[in-house]
Prior knowledge:
The protein is an alpha/beta fold. It has helices at 6-19, 21-34, 50-58, 71-83, 122-132, 150-159, and strands at 40-44, 63-68, 90-94, 107-113, 133-144, 166-170, 179-183. It has a single domain, classed as 3-Layer(aba) Sandwich (Rossmann fold). InterPro entries: Methyltransf_25, SAM-dependent_MTases_sf. It comes from Planobispora takensis. This is Methyltransferase domain-containing protein.
Amino acid sequence: MSYFEGRSGERYDRRAARLNRGLFRRICRDVAGAVPRGGAVLDAGTGSGHLLLQLARIRPDLRLSGVDLSEDMIGIGRRHVREASLQDRISLEVADVADLPHPDGGFDLVVSTLSMHHWDRVDRAVAEFARVLKPGAELWIYDFRFVSTRTLAAAVQERFPGRPMRRTLVRALLPFPVFAGYAI
C-alpha cells in the first residue's frame, strides 16, 4: 500500500492542506494574474485538489482540471469538489503525467506543485505538458528547492526550444525558501 492510500491518504490530505496553504495561496495569486479570461488550467500531480479549489474561488471564470496517479487522492479530491459544489468547474482524473488524457493544445497554463520529485520520467512528463499546452502557453513547476533539475532543464530545452527556464526561490511556510518555482 502506498503512503497516499486509505487512512494514510486522508491523513496526508489534512496535513498537506494545512502545510501547503501558504504556498498554494501564492501560486493561485500568480496563476490568477497570468491566465486569460475563460482560460483552462491543468494541475499535474494535483493530489486531492486543494490548489484547484483555492483557484476556483479566486477565478470563477476558469476551467480547471487535475490529474494524479493516486486513485485515493483523486477520490478525496472529488469529495472536496462535491462539498464545495464545484463539480461543473473542476474535473479530476486518475492519470500519469507522462500520459495525459487531454487533447493537444487545450490548456493556457500547466502547473505542478510538489510532485516532480515523484515522476519516473521527467522528460516524458515535460513532453506531455508541451503537447497539451496552447502555443506560447507556460508551464510552471514548483517543488522542493533541493530537487535536482538537470533532467528538467534538458527536457525543457528539447520540448520548448528557445524558451528559457526561470528559477525562483519561494518562501511560503518558513522564513527561508524551502521551495523553488520553475517557469517555462
